[in-house]
Every structure is written in C-alpha cells, then in structure tokens.
Amino acid sequence: MKKGFSVLFYINEKSTPACLKRSLDSVLSNTVCPDEIIAVVFGSISQEAQQILDDVKSRTNLQVITYSIDFGRAAGLHKALSKCSNERVALQDVDTISLPDRFEKQLAYFNEHSDVAVLGGWCQEMDDNSRLPTAIREVPESEKEIQPMLKRRASFVCRTVMFKQEAVLEVGGEQDFPMFENDYLWSQIIGKGYKTANLPEVLVQARAYRYPEVLALPYFRMKKELFYEMRLAGVISSFTYYRMVCNCFVRYMLMPNWLRNLFHNERLISD
Asked: How far apart are alpha carbons 102 and 202 in whole angstroms?
C-alpha cells in the first residue's frame, strides 16, 4: 500500500458541470496533490461534465468508475474504496471546494499522529450560489469530545474527512444505512478502537445543506437502529442506549411536525 493519498469523488446526474469543475480544480491546485483521483459516476451525466472528466483524465491520474444505476452514495464509495491504491483516502463532494492547503495540513497531522485513522475539520458553508459565506460548521477537535458528540449528532463533516483505508475496510466500509451512513461508519471505527480527530480550522467550502422534512416514524426507526449498532460496537452503554431512544421518541414522535422541521433545519435539535 502506497504512503501517498487518493481522493474519492461521488458524482451523479444531478451534479452540475460548474460545481464539478470548481471542485476538481480545488483538488488539483492544492499545495499537495493526490496521487490519484477516483470518480464514482452513477447514471448518465451531461456531455459537458463528461468532457471535464476527460480533460482531467488526460493530465492527471483520474480513474472513472461508472454505474448505470445510482444505488446510493455509501454503496458506491464502498465499491470504489477497494480501487484506491493509497493508504490514505480523502473524501470530496462535487459541491465542495477544498482550500489550497487542506491536504498538506491533513497529511502533516497524520505524519505526526500515526495512530489516528480518521481526520476531519471545519466547513465554511456558503449560500446557494456558493459565493457568500453563511456560517462555519464546527466539529469537536479531540477524541474526548468526538465520541460524546457522536451520541447526539455527527462528529465529522464528511466532505472534510481523510481516513486510513484499512480502518474503513475492517468495519465493512460505508453501509447502506439510510440517513445515517456516516454516523454508522464513524461509530464502528471508534468501536474498533481506532483514534479519530478534527483539525480546528476550515478545510473546505461547501453549499449549506438544508435538511429535508423529517418523516417522524422512518427517522425514529433508523435512529433507534443506529443507537443499537452503537451499543453493539461498545460506543454507548445499555443505559445510554435506552435513554437516547426515549429522547428520540419524544423529539420525533411527539413533537409537532412544523416545530421538529424548524429545529432540524436550524440545527437546534440534537439526538
């Protein structure tokens, strides 16, 4: 396994050529460039988007893996992960712009902390035109803060993460766990005893994510299943599991829809 790093993209028919180009340009203009870029393409993309991929492929090590059907981000990235030839893999979304020194900072941290398997950072959220900043999405820095926060909400901004391939493969990669693929993955990695961390600074810019309306019963069921898996992984105790399930039931089964969705979009709710 090489000591360099790969960048893993997820692209589907909704990915606009303009966003794709900005995202790829931000990767290729970094102070440290990846040894390879793996682009997972689902469905039919526009001719312009295909031309952008062809252009990048002609001047760098870009591999394009195409599937005719979009069977989900988690399954696609899991299949593509085995194609990466480097020990470390960085995730990059099409609507994400990596800051010029993102990879340099993450690689330097990995070199100084060889026991860390997952490293993320903060995200500068932008408006719908990806021009004006709206907020900075911060996540906890130390492992002592990451695990407790995982009990309530995401401890990593997925699009900022760089991880060791062996750690993700050992826990089975990203699983088809609707709405909570990433939370499930991080909890399994932490449960295996791997170290995790976040850099306390902005690594990427990305369009602010607006949470869709929450369907109470499906959301509660999946959240309960996530808590159960966290309990099996040893991330939470049995007492904490039952407490979290009860809290989740109150918030998603008893709270009025309009209030729940308002809280969800403003991130005032935690599970």
From this structure: 9
- Rounded CA-CA distance 105/27 in Å is 14
- Residues 117-141: pLDDT tens digits? 999 999 998 876 656 667 888 999 9
* Interatomic CA distance for residues 68 and 88, integer angstroms: 28
How would you label 72-85 residue by residue, b for 16+ Cβ within 10 Å and e otherwise?
A: bbbbbbbebbeebe
> How far is it, in rounded angstroms, from Cα 157 to Cα 186?
11
Residue 195 phi/psi, 5-degree rounding, is -85, 145
pLDDT digits (tens, 9 = 90+) for 72-94: 666 677 778 888 899 999 999 89
**Rounded CA separation 260/226 (Å):** 20
Considering the entire predicted model, what is its pTM? 0.86
195-207 and 96-98 strand pairing:
antiparallel
Distances from the Cα of 57 to the Cα of 25, 39, 161, 211, angstroms: 13, 10, 24, 34
Could you give the CA distance from residue 71 to residue 68 in angstroms, rounded to a whole number? 9
> What is the residue-wise DSSP string for 38-90?
EEEEESPPPHHHHHHHHHHHHHS-EEEEEESS---HHHHHHHHHTT--EEEEE
CA angle 173, 175, 178 (to 5 degrees): 150
Q: Which long-range contacts (CB under 8 A, 24 or more apart) does 257-263 make?
A: 257/213, 257/214, 257/216, 260/214, 260/216, 261/211, 261/213, 261/214
**Residues β-bridged to residue 93:** 10
